[in-house]
Amino acid sequence: MISKRLTGPVLYIANAEEEADILYRTGFSAPGKLVFLEERNGKRHLIVSDLEFKRAQRVASECHIWRLTDFELFGKPVSSLAGSALALINRLKLKKVNVSRTFPYGCASILIDNGVELVIHDKPFYRQREIKSESEIRLIRQSQRAANDAMLAAWRLIKSAEIGKKKLLFVNGTQLTSDLVRAEINKTLLDHNCVGTGTIVACGSQAADPHESGYGPLYANESIVIDIFPRHDRHGYWGDLTRTFVRGKASPALRKMYNAVYAAQKAALSRIRHGAIIRSVHMACEEEFERRGLETESGEGFIHSTGHGLGLEIHENPTLSSSGDKLRAGNVITVEPGLYYHATGGIRIEDVVLVTDTGYRYIAGLKNFFEI
């Protein structure tokens, strides 16, 4: 059964790093999978291994913590997570539970075969995650400041590079590559107890692919898109930051693109406030690019949304696209317009802001650089 309305208990059998709702509702994370069940009255249950039991009691103090070995089915000890979930459901006298579309098929089959009705939801269970508390904002700020420092480390490294033959860049005689800059970024993130996964350092035509991580030599006079999105190793909240550099002199075409992206971000930011229609924020970027004659066609131009929510997941609601939904005070969102043309390169600028009643506030601001 598929439903859009949540009317009963919620069940997850997953790793807390895969399903952020578990971390959000419990504060607990472990390397392996666990069972999380929240009753309609708000009472929360965690089933963990003996190895994790004491830590779960300490960390997830608002939950009832169960061991896998606390349960029996048909007079025999339970040996699987699905079996323990079924035993807990039976103990609580539940007839049906709500699950997400990502709920494991094998576990679902066991529950269904034993008379449990699964109601599959295609919308988030916890919409309140979209509104960040003051404590959550502080945690996101930690990760965003780590991204800022890592970006400054990348900027210093690229700025120090000498321009050699064929526009290749060199630092102390060593050819500067995407991997060397990415290593400098990721080392800086580790100093902040953050992990950088998928860090983008893409130059030239590579920068025209928004999700290309980048490889090989970096070149002078070409755009270098750097996108840093660290996750804090302790609390799990993310940061997200993009800047575009040119070591040397940008071409007129790149300069035009950069000025347009910079202006588009400012235009989008000017429309952000509590109650703003999300579509209007996205349209601000589209209108700015159209006004400057920078078209989107054949997979080139402005080819992605203006931004997304940020928190325990790198991509959360709301998404800044053509939605008719409204922004709400407490949303933490990225604002990241970009332009991408394979013959010229790519430009993207990204910052993270908090939506307020009257506008927005940077989570952790960083000035823009371009030609360095």
Question: Mind explaining what this structure looks like?
Answer:
The protein has 372 residues and is α+β, with helices and mostly antiparallel strands. Helix 3 crosses helix 4 (105-113), helix 5 (134-159) runs antiparallel to helix 6 and helix 7 (252-270) packs antiparallel against helix 8 (278-291). The longest helix has 26 residues, at 134-159. It folds into two domains: 2-125, Creatine Amidinohydrolase, Chain A, domain 1, CATH 3.40.350; 131-362, Creatine Amidinohydrolase, CATH 3.90.230. The protein is built from eight helices and 24 strands. Strand 21 and strand 22 form a beta hairpin. It is 30% helix and 25% strand. The chain has a four-stranded mixed sheet, sandwiched between helices. A three-stranded parallel sheet has the order 1-9-8, with helices on one face. A three-stranded antiparallel sheet has the order 10-11-12, with helices on one face.
Secondary-structure topology with pairs:
Blueprint: E1 2-3, E2 10-14, H1 20-26, E3 34-38, E4 44-48, H2 50-59, E5 63-67, E6 72-73, E7 76-77, H3 81-91, E8 96-100, H4 105-113, E9 117-121, H5 134-159, E10 162-163, E11 169-171, E12 174-175, H6 178-191, E13 194-196, E14 200-203, E15 223-228, E16 230-232, E17 241-246, H7 252-270, H8 278-291, E18 307-309, E19 316-320, E20 332-335, E21 338-341, E22 345-348, E23 351-355, E24 360-362
Parallel strand pairs: 1-9, 4-5, 8-9
Antiparallel strand pairs: 2-3, 3-4, 6-7, 10-11, 11-12, 13-16, 14-15, 15-17, 18-19, 20-23, 21-22, 23-24
Helix pairs in contact: 3-4, 5-6, 7-8
